[in-house]
Amino acid sequence: MAFPFFQVKQIAELNFRLSLINTILTLVLLAGCTRPAFESTPTASPTADDSMYSQAKEQLVAHAITHQQLENKGVIRAFEAVPRHRFVLPEYQDRAYDDMALPIGYGQTISQPSLVAHMTELLELEPGDKVLEIGTGSGYQAAILAELGYVDVYSIEIVPELYERSTNILKKLGYAKVQTKQADGYFGWEEAAPFDAIIVTAAPDHLPPPLADQLAEGGILVIPIGPQGFYQTLWKFIKENGELTAYNMGGVIFVPLTGEAEAGPKPTP
Question: How far apart are CA 265 and CA 30, in angstroms?
Fold first, then answer.
């Protein structure tokens, strides 16, 4: 069964931004390829020379602020601080600060960085909030959340190899307080609920009811929803008086949410 109780208020028309072209091309390439030969954990050595990426990072941050109209100073500061090149596979490190998604193995990608910042800003996080991420992937989104410094971060990854890799990277980079779990994110993290914010970084074709149930009163859930292999809609849900109000935040492209989402309840017409 679908989640029948939210009211939809469309505040933005579907806006296919030019930057999505890069993401489309990446996903097309990804769909036609097998797993990359390199599947081991990238090395995040504390002696690595991060300065060589400083100019590229500055250009990306400036682009993201303009392109996504970022305003939250805490999010911008976190975006500036987190070294994205530590989260991508070695063969893609020279493209780490391009504003596009990149393959990380196992059919998954590290999301477009400006979109990561935008989705983080949509959560409207406050000090002391508890936030749940569905789809740890590379660990980059979890690192952005942790870098804010004032929220508790929980993150779930369904692919065991990605769970191990991202957990190790987060620890090496000093984000050891991020609580990670290898599980099907469709069901959320019931024992740690409720959450003040939930962010989903892969696209189901419907809103998973467990995530709506685990969202606290007044909480915000940001999730792409739509068919696999095509454009999806980014939704921002706000829970008020036990009901969800949905705001259309525009068109996006994400890899599909796997696990129960692939065989779970479908939305009613």
Answer: 27
> Which regions of the chain does DSSP assign to beta strands (E)?
7-9, 102-105, 108-110, 130-134, 152-157, 179-182, 195-200, 215-225, 232-240, 243-252
Looking at the domain assignment, is residue 120 inside a domain?
A: yes
Q: What residue type is 204 in one-letter code?
A: P
Residue 212 above 90 pLDDT? yes
State the total domains in the chain: 1
Are 139 and 166 within 8 A, CB to CB? yes
- Identify the pLDDT of residue 261: 86
Domain that holds residue 200: 7-36+51-262
Peptide bond preceding 227 in cis form (omega within 30 of 0): no
- List, for residues 151-209, the tens digit of each pLDDT value: 999 999 999 999 999 999 999 999 999 999 999 999 999 999 999 999 999 999 999 99
**Helix, strand or coil for residue 18?**
coil
- Other C-beta atoms within 10 Å of 128: how many? 9
What element of type H or E holds 28?
A: helix 20-31
Q: Please report whether residue 41 resides in a domain.
A: no
d(CA 59, CA 170): 24
- Answer whether residue 2 is part of any domain: no
> Is pTM, for the whole model, over 0.90?
no
CA distances for 140 relative to 60, 182, 216, 264, angstroms: 15, 16, 25, 28
Q: CATH code at 169?
A: 3.40.50.150
Catalytic residues: 111
Positive or negative, the CA dihedral 40, 42, 46, 48 is: positive
Q: Decide: 170 and 146 in contact? Cβ < 8 Å.
A: yes
Main-chain dihedrals φ then ψ at residue 56, nearest 5 degrees:
-65, -40
Assigned domain for 14 exists: yes
